[in-house]
Design a protein that fits this description.
The complex is a heterodimer of chains A (about 300) and B (about 250). Helix content of chain A is about 25%, strand content about 30%. Chain A has about 300 residues and is an alpha/beta fold. A nine-stranded mixed beta sheet of chain A has the order 7-6-5-8-4-1-2-3-9, sandwiched between helices. With about 250 residues, chain B is α/β, with parallel strands linked by helices. In chain B, the strands form three sheets. Chain B has a nine-stranded mixed beta sheet, with helices on both faces. In chain B, strands 2-5 form a two-stranded antiparallel sheet. In chain B, strands 3-4 form a two-stranded antiparallel sheet. Classes of the chains: A alpha/beta (about 300), B alpha/beta (about 250). The structure holds flavin-adenine dinucleotide (FAD) and adenosine monophosphate. Chain B: One of its GO terms (biological process) is amino acid catabolic process. Chain B: Pfam families: ETF.
């Protein structure tokens, strides 16, 4: 039997997370196939073929996949499902949308956001906003899961897998794609950045959020993040919310600026290697997960810090 | 138009759950329970659609023991028209939830089904997509906007790095993000009235005979704790630590 990894991409570039998903897939010791769905996506298929440990790239190129819908992608995977014992992907908004649909079509109980894969279809995953880790065992013959990228190493890029084209089933016509809006940024992607600077509600306004955190992030080559309170207050876009219901990050260095440290926030950042917290309240819970805590007014500390950086 | 809203009863999100001493499960005896926060967004959106004249009936459904009546009363107090309890005393996982909701949908024939994007206890985030799959309905997950226009559901979805907008032919399944709306507070008189309203009850085993969860719980544990850090007094001291002790070039 074989393992299938669903590859996400943005039309130009295969996501870095896919390499982590491919190493997770090696657990089963079976050939790993990578599925690329897109439109005019030949370069993505080529990038996929270069990932070490992939023996075959299945490539579907069809107009309906210019903006892939869960309805269409799951229909496609359903035509392949019988050939695979394991189907997995990195835990992203794309796979979270698609794979539960695939699982239900295959009558399989899916496992979301796996932290560790053990023998005999046992998995460790986080529940209750990361407050508890559970070990569960699947009794299904087929395994369908998403994995947390940061918990698995990235596969190298020396591969030379074969690419084979497969045809898409007829498009699902009951859903129409209308539009999308993406924020353009020169900054590294939040979920793969080496440094992340996150701000909380205490920044007080969108203007101050930008004025204080942008120069710091700029100097650090960091991605910006935010708490839900900052997002709700309109200081930062929803896409950069870190936490239980937002993005999970695990950078080398994480700055939490004026962030209280609610569990829903720490669920998304506590795997960072080094955490620095700046908060004026010495009892703020964020200090319990911070390696370095600076008790200070952020409006003084952040500009001082930015200036002190070379 | 008729809307079905699915509500899970979960440990209140403000509470930090503990673990049983033998590690067999979480310890939630006597702990405050509430409607899953995302499901409150789902209820709120259904009520707004009704207030806009787009919907005429809202049915709330919860799967669980008779204790789940409290979250259904909360939904009634917020403004849903009917409440349905699918009684099942054992744990149900997302796939069984989807199958039970499918049977309910077949009985109730809703035009729109709204769920939460994830339950804050299991953090699975699956039931909506699974339900859409087995009904072969369009799905609009992680919705931060939802309107009904010309008989279609227009859904703006939160995706990595931005948003995307879809038009779904009805009947459809939508899952609510927290960004969808701010759920209204329940007024005491409404809660008093909701106490008197009937809750219709169905038994899960009547809807589906085979209801064994496929995922078995082996154990639960505390996640690895981060080592205690240190406090520094100044920005200089902070940089000193990061540069010399952690060896980061800054
Ligand atoms: C279902 C659910 C899911 C959620 N998911 C998420 C999620 O994914 N991510 C997330 O972040 N939150 C999430 N939340 C919200 C979470 O519970 C907290 O409310 C939120 O993280 C708090 O954000 P905050 O730290 O910016 O604000 P606050 O809690 O208001 O904290 C502000 C902090 O700033 C400090 N401060 C104030 N002024 C200054 C100053 N001048 N200088 C220095 N420090 C200062 C204060 O001491 C305080 O600690 C969720 C909530 C729910 C119910
Ligand atoms: N026991 C339940 N009863 C009613 N609805 C549920 C139940 N479990 C899950 N749901 C719905 O499915 C959504 C997603 O749940 P999950 O897949 O567990 O994350 C929730 O937000 C609810 O809307």
């Amino acid at each position: 039997m074989t393992t299938l990894v669903l590859a996400e991409h943005n039309g130009q570039q295969i996501h870095n997370e896919v390499r982590h998903a491919v190493s997770a897939a090696q657990h089963w010791g079976q050939p790993v196939h990578l599925l690329v769905v897109g439109y005019q996506s030949e370069q993505i298929a080529n990038q996929a073929a270069a990932i070490d440990g992939v023996s075959l790239v299945l490539h579907t190129d069809a107009q309906q996949f210019a903006h892939p819908l869960a309805e269409d992608v799951s229909k496609l995977i359903d035509t392949l499902v019988a050939d695979y014992q394991v189907i997995l992907a990195a835990h992203s908004s794309f796979s979270r949308n698609v794979l539960p649909r695939v699982a239900a079509l295959a009558d399989v109980a899916m496992i979301s956001d796996v932290l560790e894969i053990q023998t005999d279809n046992r998995y460790v995953r986080a529940i209750y906003a990361g407050n508890v880790h559970t070990t569960i065992q699947s009794r299904d013959a087929k395994q369908i899961l998403t994995v947390r990228g940061s918990k698995f190493s990235a596969a190298d890029l020396n591969g030379q897998a074969e690419i084979t084209d497969i045809t898409a089933p007829e498009a699902f016509t009951k859903t129409r794609w209308l539009s999308e809006s993406r924020i353009e940024t020169d900054r590294p992607a939040l979920n793969s950045a080496k440094v992340v600077v996150s701000g909380g509600r205490s920044l007080g306004s969108a203007e101050k959020f930008d004025a204080l955190l942008n120069p710091l992030a700029e100097k650090l080559g960091a991605a910006l993040g935010a708490t839900r309170a900052a997002v709700d207050a309109g200081y930062a876009p929803n896409e950069i919310q870190v936490g239980q219901t937002g993005v999970t990050v695990a950078p080398e260095l994480y700055f939490a600026v004026g962030v209280s440290g609610a569990v829903q926030h720490t669920a998304g950042m506590k795997d960072s290697r080094i955490v620095v917290a700046i908060n004026q309240d010495p009892d703020a819970p964020i200090f319990q997960v911070a390696d370095y805590g600076l008790v200070a007014d952020l409006f003084d500390a952040v500009p001082t810090l930015t200036n002190a950086l070379s | 138009m008729k809307i079905l809203v699915a509500i899970k009863r979960v440990v209140d999100y403000n509470i930090k759950v503990g673990i049983k001493t033998d590690g067999s499960n979480v310890d939630i005896d006597g702990i405050k329970m509430s409607a899953n926060p995302f499901d409150e967004n789902a209820i709120e959106q259904a009520i707004r659609l009704k207030e806009q004249g787009k919907a005429d009936e809202i049915v709330a459904v919860s799967i669980g023991s008779s204790a789940n009546q409290d979250v259904l009363r909360h939904a009634l107090a917020m403004g849903v028209d009917r409440a349905l309890l699918v009684e099942h005393d054992a744990e149900v996982q997302s796939l069984e939830v989807a199958k039970l909701l499918q049977s309910v949908a077949e009985k109730e024939q809703p035009d729109l089904i709204i769920l939460g994007k994830q339950a804050v206890d299991d953090d699975a985030g699956q039931a909506g997509q699974m339900l859409a799959a087995i009904l072969n309905y369009p799905q609009g997950t992680f919705a931060s906007e939802l309107t009904i226009e010309n008989g279609e559901a227009i859904v703006t979805r939160e995706i990595d790095g931005g948003t995307e907008t879809l038009a779904l032919q009805l009947p459809a399944v939508v899952t609510a993000d927290l960004r969808l709306n701010d759920p209204r507070f329940v007024k005491l008189p409404n809660l008093m009235q909701a106490r008197k309203k009937p809750i219709e009850t169905l038994s899960a085993s009547e809807l589906i005979s085979e209801l064994t969860p496929r995922l078995s719980l082996i154990k639960v544990a505390e996640p690895p704790q981060r080592k205690a850090g240190i406090k520094v007094d100044t920005v200089d001291a902070l940089l000193q630590q990061l540069r010399t002790k952690e060896g980061i070039a800054l």
